[in-house]
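Deliverable D4.2, example record:
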Amino acid sequence: MSNLFAVLQTSVAALDVFRDALNVTSNNVTNASTPGYVKQTLGLQALPFNTNLGLVGGVAATEVESARDVYAERAVQVQTTSLGTAQQLVTTLSPLQNGFDITGKSGIPGALNSLYSAFSGWGTTPNDGSARQSVMSAAQAVTEAFQQQSTVLDRAAADADTQLTGFVDQVNQLAATIQQNNAQRQGQAGKDPALDASLYSAVEELSSLVPVQTLQQSDGSTTVLLAGQIPLVVGDFHYKISANIAVPQTPAPTNPSGPPSAQILDSSGRDVTSLITQGQVGGLLQARNGVLAQLRGDSQQQGQLNLLAKTFADRINALLQSGNITDAVPATATAAAIPAVPGVPLFSYDASRPSSIAQSLSVSATMTADQLAAIDPGPPEVGNGIPLKLANLSTPQSAADEIDNVSYTQYFGNIAASLGAVISDAQSNQSTQQQLVTQAQDLRQQTSGVSLDAEAIKVLEFQRSYQAVSKMVTILDNLTQTVVNMIQ
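Output generated by the structure prediction step:
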C-alpha cells in the first residue's frame, strides 16, 4: 500500500513539473516578439530510482535557464553602433548635396559663370551702360549665391544641434531605464526574464546612439560605460550627460570669432566629445564638427566657403582697383591737367569675422555701374583691359587668379566632390553595416531566440507527458480504491 502512495505522490509531483514546463513554453510563445526577450527553458532532472532503497524515481524541476548568449548580444551591439554612425552621416549630409551643384547651371558655379560672361560682354563694349549694368546684376547674383549657400550650412548646423540635444535626452532616458532595472534586481532573488529583456532591449537601443560597454556586477546590476570610460549607470546611480554648443578652449582657438562647436559633457561638466566617435551621436558630431566645420568654419579654421568668397572678392577688387575709370587729361594752355580716376572695389564683406565672409559678402553699397574701371593703364594702356582680365578668371593663366592651384569654379567643384565622397562612403558603410547587423541578429536568434516551431513541439511533448502521467494517476487512484475496498 505504501508503494502505491509513493508512486501516486511521485506522479502528482511530475504533473506539477510538466505544468510549470508548459507555462515556461507558453511564456516563450507569448514573448516571441518582445524586444530583448530570449528563450527560457525549465531544467528537468531525473530523480534516483532504487526500489531496494525505497527510491521510486520521477522527475523534478531545477531552475529556469535563459538561452541568452552575451557574446551574441555584444556582436549585435557593436554592429548596431557602427550602423548608427553611417546612418547619421547620410541623414545629416545628404540634404547638402542639392546646394553643391557642379553642373555650372545653378548655385555658386552658375553665378560665377554668369559673372564671367558679363565681364566678357563688358569687355566687348566697355563704355556700354547696359553691359556695365549686366556686370552689376551678375555680381549681385554671386553675393546672393554665397549668402544662400552659407545659410544652408548654418541651418544644417542648427538642425544638427537640435538633433544632438534630442539624442542626448534619449541616452539619458535609456540610462534611467537601466538604472531602474538595477534597482529592481537588487530587491529580487534569482533570475527575471522580464528584467533581462528590458535591460538588453535598452542597451541595444542605447548602442545605436553611442558606443557603450556593459559590465555585469555580482549583485545582479549592470554597469554601463559610455565609450568604455564615461560612467552612465553604476548600480542604482545614473550619471547624466549633456549637449553644449561652445567654442572649445583646447586647443586654443585660432579663429575665435568662428562658429562654436557641438560638445558632449559628462556629469561633471567635462568635455568628452573626442571620445564619442561612433553611433548616431558620433556620426552627428563627425558631420557637425568635421564636415560642416570644414565648409563653414569654426574656432580653428575659416571654412572653405568663406575662403573662396574672400579670395574671389579680393581678386575682383584688386583687378578693378588696378584699372582706371577715366583716362588722365593732360594740361592745356587754358586748363589744368585732370588725373585719371582710379577704380573702386566691387565687393565688400565683414573682414572682422573671417568665418562670416560668405554670409556678409555684398556689392559695395556706394558702387554704381559707371564706377566699373575698364581701362588697364598698362603700359601699354588698354581701354578694355580690365574686363578681359576679369573674364579670364574662368580659365586662369596665373597663380594670382587661382585658389589652391585651381580656378574658383574648380575649387567649388572640389568642395562638392569631397562632400560627395564622404556621403558616398557613408552610404556604402550604411549598406554594409545593415547587412552585418542583420547577420548578427540572425546568429543571435539562432542561438537564443524563440522558435515557434520548436516551442510547438515542446508543447506537444509536455502535453503528452502530462496526459500520460494523468492517466497513471487515474490508474493508481483506481488501484488504491480497489485495495481499500478489499481491505474493508
